[in-house]
Amino acid sequence: QEKNRDTLAAKLSKNILLEKFPHVDPKMLNELLHVHNFSLHNTVASLRLALGVGEGKRVEGSAPPPRQDQTKETRSTLVLVSGQGKDGAETDVLSDAQSHRDEAASYYSLRMECLNKAHDAFRSGNKLVASYYSQLAEMHKNKVEQCNLRAAACLLDNHKSGADTLDLHFLHVTEAEVVLDMFLDETISQLGERARTHRRVFLITGRGLRSQGGISRIKPMVQRKLGTRGIVYSEVNPGMLSALVRMSTPLSHTS
Fold first, then answer.
1. One Pfam match, by short name (predicted)?
2. What kind and span of H or E run contains 137?
3. pLDDT for residue 230
4. How confident is residue 142, by pLDDT bands cut at 50, 70 and 90?
5. Structural domain boundaries of the chain?
6. What's the CATH number for 160-246?
7. pLDDT tens, 216-228?
């Protein structure tokens, strides 16, 4: 009788999991239930945390990570729409950027949680569960990148001083790198549209006075990025570079 009761409880737990997580592989749900010693509460809590779904919300499943060409398409779209901030107000643009930053941080936490679960499952010999959490970690990684791209699009709009000058020195290095690529890609596209062969742009990197040790982290990144893309540049002053962008300069996703 005790065995029948346990079997019935396990079956009910599986049915509840199938109802709550209809797009998760039933075999995977069974494995996860087993990993959590058939505790329905712990299994649901673990899945909700990994998927980033709040209590009371029905899970619609996790989409597979976007293909590389989809990521490029998203990036191109962001370049085109940059500059369409709310009413053009600086505070709104910065607020939007911070919102995307916060969202990226949230997905980053979820990614680390999934990586830890994948590691634990692999160590215990459950490769199926490890693979599942690894896929979720990859999905959250792509979400982080998408949110950072949206933040960068907002920041690009706010940090351009006309078409020829980009101020990077108040940004995080990772944001500055994305914003720089967007700015250069936008410049190259405009050259093609206006049938011009080249344009000189100015990149404000700052002197690094606010950086740890007083050493600029933005400037070396910009110099490395320009070199990688074959763009000739010179130093206007310790906090600004002048770069010659040509129509033949490769776009960021092809360089």
1. DUF1771
2. helix 127-159
3. 94
4. confident
5. 9-47, 89-155, 160-246
6. 3.30.1370.110
7. 789 999 999 999 9
